[in-house]
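User: Second chain of the day. Same drill as before.
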Amino acid sequence: MKALIYGQKWKRDNDQFIKVLLDKLDKEGFEYAFSDSMAKEAPISLGNHPVIASQLALKEYEPELIITLGGDGTILSAVTMIRELEIPILGINLGRLGFLASIEQQRIEEAIDLYIGNKYSISKRAMIELVTEPSTFGDDNYALNDFTILKRDNSSMIVLHTYVDGEFLNSYWADGLIVSTPTGSTGYNLSCGGPIMFPASDNFILTPVAPHNLNVRPVVLSSAHELTFKIEGRSQNYLCTLDSRHTTITSDYELKLKKNRFETKLIKLEGDNFMSTIRHKLNWGLDKRN
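Assistant: Same format as last time:
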């Protein structure tokens, strides 16, 4: 068995958990490599373990799984390396909330045992593809969580004329607009009043950020549709994001969103499910009045 251990950095506070993982992988006979972002900050010798710095190197190494160490942001970062290879991700949560990286620190050894015992399933997560003219984001023009357009240079609202398959939907007077996948529904979308969607839902969610019109509410539509946007505002520049990546655009840009051509695969361990995750992370069902 072969794995890539992926982290955005090597935090010394996590040394004990990383050691537990490495000892377990060694014990079970895994071959493993490290992402270059972890390797360059490693406080220990990595021995003969390879260091992976690009998608081409990842493709040549051919791991059967990616083990991420961090929070949801680490998984989003790993997706930019995995891309269409669709290698399954086992997310170990060394961050904070962690809806995607849902395996807690104390379950590291159990998680490896369940994986070895084939006691898991693969959760396929749909993604968003952004097509722009002029081009933005290069080959990383996709998002697992969400796409946003936000005001940037001043406090004035912006107007986002939104079309579905070429037909006018609405003009959003707001600080911005979020287009979320079901996976991203528990992120920025949730904090702006959008609904939580189950991961297998094949939808896009349009959620305005601080809308001026109080009768404007989030909209859920099938990901089979294509969305296009025209931007108006007093500013010359606007912030455009795909997950944690961002760039500046102007009202001259043509923006089109559609379902991405490849998916992200997350490893879901036996006994874990989305309902238990959101109950645990959001403290649902707990009476804290006393």
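Helices lie at 15-27, 36-39, 55-61, 72-82, 108-116, 188-191, 274-282.

User: Great, on to the next one.
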